[in-house]
Amino acid sequence: MLLKIEGITKRFGGLVAVSDVSLQVNQGEIYGLIGPNGAGKTTFFNMLTGIYKPNEGKILFENQPVQGLKPFRIAQLGISRTFQNIRLLKDESVLENVMVGMFGKTHTGLWSAILGFRSAKKEEEMVREESRKILELVGLNGYEDELAGSLSYGNQRRVEIARALVSKPKLLLLDEPTAGMNDEETEEIGELILKIRENGTTVILIEHNVGWVTGLCNRIAVFDHGEKIADNVPDAIISDPLVIEAYIGKEDEEGESEYAAN
Fold first, then answer.
1. Helix ranges, the chain (H)
2. What is the pLDDT of residues 230-254, one digit of tens each?
3. Which pTM does this prediction carry?
4. What is the domain class of 1-78+169-262 according to CATH?
5. Where exactly are the structural domains of the chain?
6. Where's the ABC transporter domain (predicted)?
7. pLDDT digit string (tens) for 7-62?
8. How far is the C-alpha of 24 from the C-alpha of 47, rounded, in Å?
């Protein structure tokens, strides 16, 4: 088991954003998180990556407690992520944006780089080479020297995924990776996620496209008002009455669920 969550809770004053959530993610899975806006999914990601510290509960990554660790330390242990809103250095090249993802994994210090020490130059070349390999993996070979801000929205998403992958994480968290994409781009991202999993990286993703998630993920958890209300294989999730009521929608007057109608 790669990740085990035991009863984590996050409060902001009197607001309970995530309440007593427990789940397990196995090595090699693609695990989906779905639920209405404000259900606590991104807050959950923020606890996994050290941005927020849980008020209660445990987060075990490879049997090691990580709740309360700084984000850079959690990244060093092998958890990487993307964000719902793209966060690129838009005036820098695609290659430079990906190289930033190796920060914290390199060994030579700032002064070594400034003074041009041979070890720093060798390490920088290694980072460049790894970044080029990842850009090829995500389908962006040939874009290395383009400004990140000049790329299409879909390709900017790919750059962000590449930046998260370059440090070779064991667990990749994707926060709405297909937001704003058309159907073709969405399918391409699905193919990329399968390729990432085939290369040995476990994936947890937040997504609103229920049909796409059920076709891609091995298991899915459903959040509603900060609570986990379901955790199962896709076929069981889409037929769960609690899920239909809380997320997919209650039956309409003709007896057809919102999910079925769409």
1. 41-48, 71-77, 94-99, 110-114, 118-137, 153-165, 183-198, 210-216, 234-238, 241-243, 258-261
2. 999 999 999 999 998 876 554 444 4
3. 0.87
4. alpha beta
5. 1-78+169-262, 89-167
6. 3-250
7. 999 999 999 999 999 999 999 999 999 998 889 999 999 999 999 999 999 999 99
8. 15
